[in-house]
Write a structure and sequence with these properties.
Distance between the termini: 67 Å
Number of strands: 10
Number of helices: 21
Shape: globular
Radius of gyration: 27 Å
């Protein structure tokens, strides 16, 4: 397996490098993509698949002669954890990254197989160029197939934090599908710039890939928050950790691009914005990979010191210089004669959206990199923590939520005053009611503003479904449920986007409530003794222990009562691993739409006489996870459901009544929102 896996990497490296050069030279000479680029891309993806399967087989069979298996393998590790050990350390994670990128590249070549223009040639060459870089890492500094001789009898197993919750089987693959997927829009952007074909075609070709990668990245961020909440025992889910920030920054710029590309498709504007946002998103994924794998930041999410930091810095520098040169060379083609017609227009909302998301990204980037730069320049460790990020970003978040409510209410080009009043009346009423209701509980300005703007934006987005369904009802005589269902299916891009917006509002609602109104208590309790936290009474019943193949577990049974009625028994645990000096907690969580009861076992006496518990009552946490699910559903629906403005409207033939009816319905919906 070791020889097969490494040979596949070497052959893949030679093919990817040759494909990169041939794509650049022959596409430039002939003005079209050489046919054999497809075969090269498929071959590289196949070789990376062989290498990945070889590593998985080595992990499963405990082949400790393979350096990566000797680093993360263990005979005591359960089979499922052995498989996910593939991404538990540096070398395996680079292999997994390269494999996912190879699959993406093969998928791009397959879906674009009927194109042979210069843009797709350069785009394929760009994908092969990025693959060349990652294959070079695997061949040299991050070789997972190194020989260990003599092979040890056993290994230490993967990082205990990765063995402690099933989300570690979910979060990293989602993150890679999001991170690596951002290479595809970058490749299309480079292809468009290099070929000079900067019409709307490149952004339309890129949209589905970007939305797909963005949705995976959104799901990965939420899954990481959930893992932090369920595993680390601190009761929170977002700490502005540098590695958390590294995944969040490309999400922000990709979000800006997804919105901005609609302006280019509709009005031919913001071309330079769109290309720049795509390039920035890719560079931020590379920066995030550097931060995670170079050892320059200390985080539970980061790997230890690795030998690849300088490689990544050099690659980022080359991509940055090359991209700036291309942008400068094509600056004339990126200009547009279209202008914003009025301040009260959807174009203006999208432009402000871009500006706020860019400022947001720069703020997070500054807070993340400042300690590293300060330590490198002055040799002094500087800490930039949650207070800085909260103080700097909360106003931006509130403004973005407000824009997410204003945007759907604004038409393209110019709003007629009467139409605008009709669109914002219900959202403004919701804002006032939410503000009044919130003032009964708190005078904290950002809480009042936050809840009010969430109510405003939620109402604005929900009424888009109502207005569209009502237009179909009036045009076709459909009942409300049928009209709503067919409306959503007819334009998945729009209404999937609104559903993702609603998911963000649900997350904002959950974050505000859980951040401001939580109740916390830590106490040492004797067996049979009861403590109170919020409306709950917690009685310590007993302590127990059990040995599992890869760890030893201590748990405490806590009987939970509410208003005198027993409602559950929760069991917070401590997990002891042979390779970990300190135990890793597994909190017990009782969740409801209203609040979570969160218990962490902090300490215990060996005889079971007492335990120390940390109990937290956190309102509305469940809405964070519900919002994340809605974002994922909305994103995938927008990306993959058929229909919408990108699909051609059926011809209105005299004998085709269903097509006529659908065309009439689309016209009615457009008329409902038209203002000019």
């Amino acid at each position: 397996m070791r020889e097969l896996g490494y040979a596949a990497i070497l052959v893949g490296l030679l093919l990817a490098a040759a494909g990169t050069v041939l794509a650049a030279v022959i596409t430039r000479r002939d003005g079209r993509a050489p046919e054999y680029l497809k075969a090269i891309t498929y071959a590289v993806a196949g070789l990376l698949t062989v290498s990945t399967l070889a590593m998985v087989l080595a992990l499963v069979t405990n082949d400790f002669s393979v350096s990566y298996v000797a680093q993360v393998g263990s005979r005591a590790t359960p089979l499922d954890i052995k498989i996910i050990s593939l991404w538990s350390a540096l070398e395996g994670s680079i292999l997994f990254w390269g494999w996912v990128l190879g699959l993406y590249a093969a998928a791009v070549v397959y879906t674009q197989r009927r194109r042979d223009d210069a843009a797709i040639g350069y785009a394929t060459g760009t994908l092969l160029g990025v693959l060349t870089f990652f294959l070079l890492l695997m061949a040299l500094p991050a070789n997972p197939f190194g020989l260990v001789n003599p092979a040890p009898a056993d290994g230490p197993g993967p990082n205990p934090l990765l063995q402690n919750h099933y989300l570690m089987a979910v979060h990293p693959p989602l993150l890679y599908l999001g991170y690596v997927g951002m290479t595809v829009p970058f490749a299309f952007a480079i292809g468009a710039l290099a070929s000079g074909t900067l019409d709307n075609q490149w952004s339309r070709s890129t949209r589905r890939w970007t939305v797909t990668a963005w949705t995976f990245l959104s799901a990965a961020i939420v899954a990481g928050m959930w893992w932090s909440y369920e595993v680390l025992g601190w009761g929170g889910y977002w700490a502005w950790d540098p590695v958390e920030n590294a995944s969040f920054m490309p999400w922000l710029t990709a979000t800006a691009f997804i919105h901005s590309t609609m302006v280019e498709e509709r009005r031919g504007m913001l071309k330079a914005w769109n290309v720049t946002l795509v390039i920035a998103t890719f560079l931020l994924t590379m920066l995030g990979t550097f931060l995670t794998r170079s050892g320059v930041v200390i985080s539970v999410h980061a790997f230890a010191d690795g030998p690849i930091g300088m490689y990544f810095l050099a690659f980022i520098a080359v991509v940055l210089v090359f991209s700036i040169a291309l942008l400068a060379g094509r600056s004339e083609l990126l200009r547009t004669d279209s202008r914003i017609d009025a301040l009260a227009s959807r174009e203006t909302a999208f432009l402000f959206n871009n500006l706020l998301l860019t400022v947001f990204t720069f703020t997070v980037l500054l807070g993340t990199l400042f300690p590293l730069v300060g330590e490198a320049v002055r040799g002094v460790k500087v800490s930039v923590g949650a207070p800085f990020f909260n103080r700097m970003t909360v106003p931006i978040i509130v403004a973005l939520i407000f824009l997410m409510g204003v945007g759907p209410a604004l038409p393209w080009r110019k709003a007629a005053p009467g139409e605008l009043r009709r669109k914002v009346l219900a959202p403004v009423v919701a804002l006032v009611l939410a503000a009044v209701a919130t003032l009964f509980f708190t005078r904290a300005p950002y809480v009042v503003i936050g809840y009010s703007f969430v109510a405003f934006a939620l109402t604005s987005n929900l009424q888009e479904y109502f207005f569209g369904a009502r237009a179909r009802m009036q045009a076709l005589g459909e009942n409300f449920a049928t009209a709503l269902g067919r409306l959503v299916v007819s334009n998945p891009r729009r209404y999937g986007g609104y559903l993702a917006h609603i998911g963000i509002f649900a997350m904002a609602f959950g974050i505000i409530g859980s951040s401001v109104y939580l109740t916390e208590r830590e106490a040492t309790v004797r067996r049979g003794e009861t403590i109170a936290v919020g409306d709950y009474a917690l009685r310590y019943a007993e302590t127990w222990g059990r040995e599992e193949p890869h760890r030893y577990v201590i748990g405490a049974d806590i009987v939970v009562s509410k208003r005198g009625v027993v409602i559950d028994t929760l069991t917070p645990r401590m997990n002891f691993y042979a390779t970990q000096a300190q135990p890793i907690p597994t909190p017990a969580v009782k969740s409801s739409l209203k609040e979570d009861l969160y218990l962490t076992l902090m300490a215990f006496e060996r005889d079971g006489s007492t335990v120390t518990l940390k109990a937290i009552v956190e309102p509305t946490v469940a809405w964070v996870w519900i919002g994340g699910l809605l974002i994922m559903i909305g994103g995938f629906f927008a990306a993959f459901a058929k229909g919408g403005p990108t699909s051609p409207r059926p011809p209105r033939t005299a004998g085709d009544r269903p097509q006529q009816r659908e065309a009439v319905a689309e016209d009615a919906v457009e008329l409902e929102e038209a203002t000019v």
